[in-house]
Amino acid sequence: MNECINLGKYPFYGADESLEDEFIADCRQVYRRTGICELPEFILPSALDILAGEASQWMDSAYFCDNSHNAYLDTPDCPKGPGSVEHTMERTVVGSIPYDRIDPGSLLNQIYLWDPLKDFIGRVLGKSPFYRFSDPMGACSINVFVEGGEHGWHFDESEYSVTLMLQSPEQGGEFEYVPRIRGMENEQSMVGSVLHGNRSGVENLPFVPGTLLIFGGKQTLHRVTRVSGPTPRLVPVLCFAEEPGRVNSEKVRKLFWGRAT
């Protein structure tokens, strides 16, 4: 991992214990305050080339979905009429390479299975004990955005997500978000304002290949803007859990990968 992860810049492993503790505490503080821990240049350039090459080889295994949803990722059945937040639909077009199509000997899998990385992420999130996800498709998948791909405004169902930025497209594919508005007194009006084009509270997170991102998506409204150009936007998603043996439901597997087994 010394040849893959920038442990000189991010001393969470192999450094003096006090330095490790201080660095992780700083990451934890940033995450608690903002809901985002962004670590650019986390992956070293030579390893980044290998990871992007691996993902490109598995592109034919990606399953693409084209769905409409509201910001809460559900089907509106409330009495409010058209134009309400619940009835304002967003479009998501994204592919996903499942974990069972990723080479077990690949560099990506070695990174995912490296315990010090798992433990570091768990400490940033304040989760102990902390385990890798056990789902055969969703443990470590790769999001693929090709020409026309996008992910509409939404809150995540899971408390947090962990992603690696591997490859950016020629145009679009920008990560936009409105931080930590879930549960606020004026949540509905703020969400509605964003969905109808108000940009005043929208922030942009630059896509920098090699970045590790720990993101509290359940509290923060976010989207990926439409991608254009021949180069796909590639983002591995590393999944973890607070209990051992956690897996997705068959419904979720069929939605994201087109099959249950």
Describe this structure in words.
The structure is a single chain. With 261 residues, this protein is of the alpha+beta class. It has a single domain (17-257), classed as Sandwich (Jelly Rolls). 25% of the residues lie in helices and 23% in strands. Strands 1, 2, 3, 5, 6, 7, 8, 9, 10, 11 and 12 form an eleven-stranded antiparallel β-sheet that branches. α1 crosses α4. It is globular. The model has no long low-confidence stretch (mean pLDDT 94).
- pLDDT averaged over residues: 94
CATH architecture: Sandwich
The counted number of beta strands is 13
Radius of gyration: 18 Å
Tell me the domain tally.
Answer: 1
Weakly predicted, low-confidence segments: none
Give the overall form: globular
Work out the strand percent: 15-25%
In N-to-C order, the SSE pattern is HEHEEHHEEEEEHEEEEEH
CATH fold label: Jelly Rolls
CATH level-1 class: Mainly Beta
Rounded to the nearest angstrom, the distance between the terminal CA atoms is: 32 Å
CATH superfamily: q2cbj1_9rhob like domain
Question: Sheet with the most strands?
Answer: 11 strands, antiparallel
Q: Assign the structural class, choosing from mainly alpha, mainly beta, alpha/beta, alpha+beta, or little secondary structure.
A: alpha+beta
Number of helices: 6
- Helical content band: 10-25%
